Each structure stands twice: as C-alpha cells, then as structure tokens.
Fold:
Amino acid sequence: MNSRESVLLDIKDLHVWYKVYGGYLKVLNGVYLTVREGERVGLVGEAGCGKTTTMKSILQILPPKDSKIPKGEIIYKGKDVLKMNFGELQKLRSKEIAMIFQDPTAALNPVFTIGVQISDVIKYSIAIEERKVHKEKVRTQAIKALKEVYLPDPQRMLVNYPLQLSGGMRQRVCIAMSISSPRNLLIADEPGTSLDVTIQDQILRLLKEIVEKHGTSIILITHSLGVAREITDRIYVMYAGTIVETAPAKELFKNPEHPYTRGLLASVPEISGGGIARGIPGRIPDYLNPPSGCRFQPRCEYATPSCQEKPPQLFEIDKDHFVACYLAQR
Amino acid sequence: MTQKGNSEILKVINLKKYFRIGKDKKGPIYVRAVDGVSFNVKYGETLGLVGESGSGKSTIAYTVVGMYRPTSGQILFKDQNIGMQAVRRPLSLKKEIQIVFQDPGSSLNPRQTIEQILKLPLKLHTNTPKKQLKEKMVELLEKVELPPDYLYKSPPSIGGGEKQMVAIARALAPNPSLIILDEPTSALDVSVQAKIINKLMDLQKELNLTYLFITHDLSLMRNVADRIAIMYLGKICEVADSSTFFEKPLHPYTQMLISSVPVITDEEERLKPKKVVSIGEIPSPVNVPPGCSFHLRCPYKMPICSEFDPEMVEVASGHIVRCHLFDMNKNEGQ
Structure:
C-alpha cells in the first residue's frame, strides 16, 4: 500500500442544488471528502443520497442549466475545479480524472466500434499537433489497454460493436478506456451493480489489480458495504447529501458510530445466517424541504431536540475516524 | 427426493420451456430458458431459487403462475395438473397462486389508486359483500403496516418500499396458499429490504403461506429460505437445506457463487470457499455448450464433462447435486 500523505482531491463543504418546479432540491448539504495519492476510497450510501451528484460535480458534468453550486470548494492538485475555465476543465477530464459509469451499455455508443471509441479517449490525452503523427501509437495503446483488462483477442475487439459483447465484457471495455492513457484518479460509479455476482466479483478484482499496478487513486461509489469492503482503504458513508461517517475500512466495520451506519450494517443479510435486523424506519427525506438540523434526525432512534436545531459537524472520535453526530461528541 | 404422500404443495416434474426466436436452414432456433427442471415445494416452507441473469428462474415463476404454457413437463399444484395457460386454469386455482414482481414501479398501475388496485382481486376471487370491501382493504393494508389513508393514494406518490408493500397486500387479497416472490427486494435499498423481508417472514407464519422465493442474492437467501435450489442455464445444479448449502457447497458453480458474494465481516469471509475464483462468462442460452453447461467455467473440468450432461445425484438426504464429480464417487463406492 502506497498511501503517501499528499492530498490529491479535497472536497470542502460542497453544496449542490437542482432546480425543479417549485424551488431548489437541496441535494448536497456540505460534503467533505479527501482522496490522498494512491488511496482507494469508497463512497457508500443508499439510492438518492447524492453519491453520483458528488462525483459529477468533481468533473463538472452536472446539467449546467438545472444545477447550482451555491457553496463549496473542490480542490484538485491545489486548484479549485469550480473556478477552472473551459480549457482547464477539458485537461482535467482528458488527462487527470477518468470515470467508469454504472451501466456500460449506456456508457458506450452503440453505433461506433470499440476501436473508434477507445482511440478517441487516447487521442484527447495527446496534444493536438501530435495526434495525426501517432496513429499507430494510438492503436498499440488501445490494444495494450484491452489486454490489461483481459479481453480475449484485443485486435478483433477493436472492430467489434458494443452490442456484440456481453455486459461483463462491455464493462471491461469501459475500464480499458479509463486506463488507456495514464490517469491520476479513477472514479468508478457502481461498476458492478448492473452485472451478475460472479461477473461483479471479476470486475472488482480487475479494478483492484489495475489500481495497485498503476498506483492510481480510486473513488468507488457503491450502495453495497460488502463491495466497498472488498477493495477500499477508507470509506465515506453518505446520507441525504451529507457525509455522516468516515473511517478506515476495517475500523468502520469494527466500530460503526453513527446510528445510520449501524442501521445500514445491520440491514445487510449475512451468509452466516441468523436472520435480518428490522431495517431503518422511514425513508430518505424530501430534498425540496429537507428536515432542519441533522438530516437523519426524523429516522433516528436516538434523536434529541438539539438534533433539530443545527446540523452536526464531522467530529474526530478516533484517529482518522470522523462522525457527524451529537451522540458521538458527548 | 422423499415423497411423503401429500406433503408437497407444488411439484415440478421435468419442466421445459423453450422460446422460439427465429429460424435457420436446420430449422427453428429456440432459447432453452428452462430445460428439464424438477423440484418440489413443501407446505409452509420457503424454497429459494437462485441463479444469475438468464438462468431461467423467472421463466419458472411465470410458468407456475400461468403466464407461460410449458413446452413439456408437468406442474402439479396440490396434486392437480396446472400445466395449462392461465386462461384455461380454473379460478379457484388462480386464487391459490399469487405473485409479487421485482419492480413495484411497473407492476402497479400508476393511474389507479391503491383502493382500485386492491379491490380487483377481492371482487374477483372472494365473495366479500360490497359493504365490507373497504373494511377488508383496510385490513389488508394493516397486514403490511400501511395506514388506511393510503387507499386514496396512487403508486407514484409513495416510496419504493411502500409500493412493494402494496404489491404484497394485493397478492394476499385472494387468500392464497402459495406466493411466488420474484426478486421482491432487488430494486430496493438494503434498509428497506430488511423491513420487507421481515414482514414477509411474519406473514408466512401468521397466514401459513408457502413461498417460492426467487433471487440472485445468496446472502439474503441464507436468511430467508429453508431450502435452496441453484440454477444455471435453465437447469438446477444443486438443491440443499440452506445451512448445509453454505457449510458444504458441493457443485463447483455453487462454490463460485458463494465465493463471489461481497461480505461485511471477517467471520463471513472465513465461511467462503476460497479455492474457486470466478472466471469466464455465462454462455447465451441459445447456444448451450454440449455436456454439462458449466464445463466452460469449471475449475474441476474432466473430459467427460464436455460430452455427457450429468445426472442428478442425491449425495446426502435432501442434498442433490448435478455434477460428474459426485456421479463418479458414487460409482466407485458401489
């Protein structure tokens, strides 16, 4: 493990709102997230908690007309992404950060061959004036990437269309695209969710291997704590647009502190049997009128009147273990 | 499998369901969605049917409910043959078998109110007097822990978990004895899933229901099912009690499945068979490989596997495996 102390990405107090009929959906409400170089970070939360919104705001690919970032900073290598101009953003997207999406079928264009799509990615990582010269280089780089994700017969793969491949193979192609040119940060948004368990296992092992080999940092977004446990060093638990708890992966599973994390862990069925806990009552809040104070307070069994007044801040209870709950501060 | 007179509520014998998808020079091409499946479901138990996408588990569910007519084979429900289309099936039998679908968002009509949704099965299958219909519907909602004012809501205005609860209430309305649960929680979050599964388990005890539970989630199955059947490409690989299943998985595919499940504690990690690493992909059900359909991905592959399809072998009481590894052991023993 090569977790050097230098910080690659630092998200501070990020707020993102979406415009809808009747006002703004206040989806993100102060997200803090830090990724160090070579670190494997997991972002875990249930559907609709803002995981993907956070990631999209890092790359600035939120719908420009309907979204608004009223507050916050996203510092990547010392520069604020939110203040970058178009050219800088393009560089960020083509050379620094790569994203792997949940559904490979939707992420690949069905009317172009794999070869065309993967060379596009490689071309944009090369300076414009050199692009034409390096036609052969692009091809070998593409084949190398396809080999690295263990796709059989990479030469033939280049002329295949996404429709000719299975779901697992398509996801491998997407991973190949993201590593086809050197990147510093990979964002994998639920990379195995749309696949079967045995295939998901293969994809996760592949991602782990690639990240270790290249020393790339990765943010793995997932709704499954089990998946996060398999490959990450550090886990952020998200609920309704806020980070409620963060700790090194082992510590989080050993000593979960936030009531939400505990409820989530108890809800996961275990293969050793023993039944399933009662789950967490209620549901994720309405973002149009979110509850005052702590956003988990309406569903929390330990809620006190003070929870309704002010949202709790992340508080360090142990080394590197932060919890946003008044309960832990007492 | 033991045959104790009348103790099985559902018997499926050598069920086959092929779908025609086209034709070439040799003749029509079929997808063999279900290819010779036999299993029994006992009264009051939960049989888990586990498999990856394309393994034919939903096809079995739909055939039992009567949405499809089997290509061949028999389905006996309470010793009556129900291998006919739903149209020809007597109403009294339709009432007995109900289904809960995977996605409550599309299985409930968004333009109807919950009242309309629950009223139809009550009117069709029970002779509840008109005046007591509302009372009965409130009772159904109470069973799934929803307040009575939900009668006037429509599906889009309630949460995913609540929608699935309504779908369960609808399945309960005609007072069935067998409910088929086709991935009832795979579209939902874990915290919501826990709530629904617990409710289903309570209802099973309270109303004496039998469940045929279909899912791809093995760890969920461990906590829910009494017995588990694993399917791969239209065939059953292994049937066993759920505890033996996780302690002593025999079929290589089962071992691969269990070792692929992401878990959250170290104790569980130790339970997983480490030897079998997932390789390869599921072949398309149109071109099922000859011999054992799993031989392309199997780490213990032998020459015989690509030639002959193995038979079901009972290795211990109630533990059935379809694999040449155990076929041979048995022959040697004799």
User: Anything to note?
Assistant: The first strand of chain B starts at residue 8 and ends at 24.
